[in-house]
Write a structure and sequence with these properties.
Radius of gyration: 32 Å
Helix content: 10-25%
Order of helices and strands: HHEEHHEEEEEEEEEEEEEE
Number of strands: 16
Structural class: alpha+beta
Largest sheet: 6 strands, antiparallel
Strand content: 25-35%
Distance between the termini: 131 Å
Length: 351
């Protein structure tokens, strides 16, 4: 065996003194430390933080992703948009990424790009943010998109690719029309240890981006100042009767959409059977989707003032007051009460 170029320190002489006396030793130590540093960095690059599991599956996997809108007038009868514009979904925009990147997250503030997408469906700024994260942090493996759905109930689909170091999937779809409401997934991991998941299905519920304070689908622009965080819209929150998703009789809203991801096998002639109920492709409208019937109770206005008391002199007269229907009942909801009420009175100007 050849002699090593590194030497143990002499007794009574410090290591720093040896390095100063021996330039070749300093150079060798420097190269060794640099090699150790590079090895350490390379072993941690792309690894998840916070004790998350490491994906050891094959480097690449492809998936089909199918978005199914379930926003029907039967399931969501209150203020259901029928025209200008009717209920529909924007295009789907998503990314395959590592834990270093976040497209959106509940209880956190959205980026400027996400705000533009949630409020107006404009994707350019959000796409630039995704690309910048990919270039700067190398945290994004790829971007994917799917066509818009021109109806509240319909399907759209596309394909995406994930990597063992970028096994998380996030996407957003805007609810149209709405102030800043959307559905989506935040950092869904398609890897379980040493294998890729074969199929994943997730029910989706409406979220508020926290940038516009409108209560209804067709509310005019009303910026939230200061900006709020992302919150899930429920049947009781926001707790305002004018809210388009306010259904106090329900414990929870039915899912307004659903997404299904199915792993695609590699190979030019491999046939992948469609998942149950997912026969439609692209942005096809699906009329046969069955959903829950959400009861919508009748809502009426306050009573008007009493009218004049009319009647003959010496006898009791009558006066009336009225109210009108604000929301028609649907799906076996509570019917409307009487809209006119009459009461006895003493005539003010008898005849």
């Amino acid at each position: 065996m050849g002699k090593s170029s590194l030497h143990f320190p002499r007794m009574g002489v410090s290591r720093s003194q040896q390095v100063m006396e021996n330039p070749s030793l300093a150079s060798t130590l420097g190269r060794a430390l640099w090699t150790l540093l590079l090895a350490t960095l390379s072993s941690t690059t792309g690894q998840p933080f916070g004790g998350e599991s490491v994906c050891t599956a094959r480097p690449l996997a492809k998936y089909s992703i199918t978005f199914t809108g379930k926003w029907s007038q039967t399931a969501f009868p209150k203020q259901y948009p029928l025209f200008r514009p009717p209920a529909q979904w924007s295009s789907l925009l998503g990314a395959a990424h590592s834990s270093d990147y976040s497209m959106w997250r509940k209880n956190e503030y959205v980026s400027n790009g996400m705000r533009d997408f949630a409020e107006r469906g404009e994707a350019w700024a959000l796409m630039r943010e995704i690309e910048a994260a990919g270039e700067k942090l190398q945290s994004v493996h790829g971007v994917f998109s799917a066509p818009a759905v021109p109806s509240g109930t319909g399907q759209t689909s596309t394909e995406l690719e994930v990597h063992s170091r970028h096994s998380l999937v996030s996407f957003v779809v805007r609810i149209v029309p709405s102030p800043d409401w959307f559905v989506g997934i935040d950092s869904l991991d398609l890897c379980e240890g040493g294998r890729w998941k074969e199929q994943v299905a997730v029910d989706l519920y409406p979220h508020d981006a926290g940038t516009d304070s409108g209560f209804t689908f067709s509310s005019p622009n009303f910026a939230t100042i200061p900006q709020d965080t992302v919150t899930e819209i429920t049947s009781s929150s926001p707790s305002h009767p004018a809210n388009s998703f306010y259904y106090p009789r329900l414990k929870s809203l039915p899912p307004i959409a659903r997404v299904t991801l199915v792993r695609l096998r590699q190979g030019p002639r491999t046939f992948i059977p469609p998942a149950p109920g997912l026969a439609s492709r692209d942005n096809e409208i699906v009329d046969s989707l069955s959903g829950p019937e959400t009861p919508l109770d009748c809502e009426v206005s306050l009573w008007s003032s009493w009218g004049l008391c009319t009647g003959p002199c010496g006898k009791l007269g009558a006066k009336t007051r009225t109210r009108y229907v604000r929301v028609q009942p649907a799906n076996n909801g509570t019917p409307c009460p009487e809209l006119e009420e009459e009461a006895e009175c003493v005539p003010d100007n008898c005849v």
